[in-house]
Structures are given as structure tokens and as C-alpha cells.
Amino acid sequence: MLVFLLTIAFGWMGFYRFYKRQYFRGLLYLFTFGFFFIGWLIDVICALREMLTAPAPVVLPYVAPRPVSNGPATEADELMKYKRLLDSGAITKEEYKQKKRELLSKKKPEELFVECPYCGSKNDKNAAKCSSCGAFLRS
Ligand SMILES: [Zn+2]
Question: Which helix (H) or strand (E) holds 61?
Fold first, then answer.
């Protein structure tokens, strides 16, 4: 960008050629007003094309290392993951909200089971009787 602007401003003095370390041509430009403005025009186009084709710097989103845990990822972990994706622009705000809703509406596994007060085995929450000992789970 800067090179492009400087070429427009000082190209007639051979700026672009000096920038390219072509000192002979730079001097030639300087004494002929950018090769009678034709060379200047060419340089401006060159600088413009160079600016447009230059690869954009790759900015990788910083992802904080997750603390090592043996347990399964919790909803908070999952949510943080999606928050990072949102911040890095990988997902849209709508997608993030959708994921958040999904995660928050997702029932924890423990809530799906009810522990039998007699034998301690886990039973389906909707089960009326314990599958192990047959005791009534609901009053
Ligand atoms: Zn039982």
C-alpha cells in the first residue's frame, strides 16, 4: 500500500525503480521525468498489481491450550470451544447461539437416571420399578 502510494507520488523521480534496487533505471527516470511519464505509469500499475497480489498475512487465531482432564468435556468446555470459534470468525453468531441453546438444553446424563434407594443400581428416570431388585421407585 505504502509502496503504491509512494510510486504515485514520486514515481516520476524513479521511486519504484530505486525501491526495486534498479538504480540505473531509477536515475534514468529521474532525468527524464519517469521516462516521459510512461515509465511512471507502468510503475504505478506494477506497484498496484504487486499490492493486490501480495499474499495477505495469515493470522491464526490463538487457541489457549486446554487443561488436561481425563473426564469427558463438560458443557462449559464445549461452550468455550464454540466461543473461540466465534471469536476467530470460524462460525457466525447465529451458529454460536444455536450451539449454546443445544448445549444448555442438553440434559446431563445423571439426570436421566435415578438411583434405587434399596440396592443403589441406576434405573431409568421414568421406570416405576428397579430393574435389579424390583423395588418401587416412585411413591
Ligand atoms: Zn433396586
Answer: none
Place of cell 493486490: 52
Grid coordinates of 74 = 463438560
The answer, yes or no, to whether residue 104 has pLDDT greater than 70, is yes
Partners of 124 in the β-ladder: 113
Each residue's pLDDT tens digit, 26-82: 766 666 765 676 777 777 777 778 777 776 666 777 777 766 656 666 778 888 899
Where b means 16+ CB within 10 Å and e means fewer, 6-23 reads ebbebbbbbbbbbbbeee
Residue 74 CA to ligand 1 center (angstroms) comes to 29
Distance between CA atoms of 99 and 40, rounded to whole angstroms?
55
d(CA 112, ligand 1 centre) in Å? 16
